[in-house]
Amino acid sequence: MRTIAVMSPKGGIGKTTTADSIAYILGEEHEKKVLILDGDPQGDTSKTFGCYETEETGMSRLLEYHVCAGGEWHTPELIWPTKYPHIDMLPANGYLVRTDLNLMISQEENQITRLKKALAEVSEKYDYCICDCGRLFDMVVINILIASELIIAPVKVGGYENEAINSLCEQVTDLQEINPELKIKGILTMRQKNKTSLEFEEYLKTVSGLEMFETPIRRSIMAEKATIAMTALPAFSKSGIVTQDYRSVVQELLEEMEV
Ligand SMILES: Nc1ncnc2c1ncn2[C@@H]1O[C@H](COP(=O)(O)OP(=O)(O)OP(=O)(O)O)[C@@H](O)[C@H]1O
Ligand SMILES: [Mg+2]
Predict the structure, then answer these.
(1) CATH number, domain with residue 185
(2) 11 CB under 6 A from ligand 1?
C-alpha cells in the first residue's frame, strides 16, 4: 500500500477536493483498491463518501484505542465500505480534536507512529491510502505524515499561501529525520488564466524550489457544486475541466509511483 497525504497549512485551498478526486479516480477509474482516510475533524471527506456519523468513529478509535496502543480495536474493524466498490474509508469527525489532545499528553513512545503501525494491518489489502489532512500541524496530521511517502500540497495564487507552503517544507525537513522517505510535491489549484496567475505558476515551477505536478487544476464552479452536493467531483462532473485536470494528475502520479 502506498500512502499519500494531502496537506497544506492553509484552509479552503482544495485539500479535500484533491484527496477525494484522486481517491475516486484511482479507485473507480483505474480499479485500484483505495482506502481514503479522513484526518480532519471537520469530517468533510467522510461526508463526501457517505461515512459521516456523530458518534466517536474510525480515526479517533484507531489512534486512541488500537491494539498497538494497548486498546481493543484492530484496523479492519474501523474501516467502512463506501458506495464505490473500489473505495473503503477510515472516517473522522469532531472527536478528532480530543484525539489530538490525548495524543499530545500521551506518555507512550508510539504517539506519533500509531497510524503507521495500525495501517500495516491492512497494507496488503489496498493499493493506495489517500489521506485528507486538516490544516493544523497537529498530532493526527503528524501521524499521517509519518505513515506517508508523499505529501501532495495544494497551493493557489497568493502571498500567504506561498509562505504557508514554505513553512510546510521546513516542517517536512524535520519530519524526514523520522521518516526519511517522505517527499513533498505541490499542485496548483484554482488556477485562472490571468497574468498574475500565470506569473505565479512560472515562479512555482522555476524559482520556488518546490517540485510541482505538471498539470495545474483549473478553477470551475463545478468543483463548488460537487462540494455542495457532497459528492466526489469526478462522480459529480465526469467530463468537467477540473475532473479532466485531476485525471492528468493521477496519470502523473501513477507514472511516478508505479515505475
Ligand atoms: N478547482 C476548483 N475550482 C473552484 N472551486 C474549487 C476548486 N477546488 C476546490 N474548490 C472549492 O473551494 C472550496 C474549498 O475546497 P476544499 O474543501 O477542497 O478545501 P480544503 O483545503 O479541504 O478546506 P479546509 O481547510 O476547510 O479543509 C470548496 O467550496 C470547493 O468546492
Ligand atoms: Mg478539507
Answers:
(1) 3.40.50.300
(2) yes
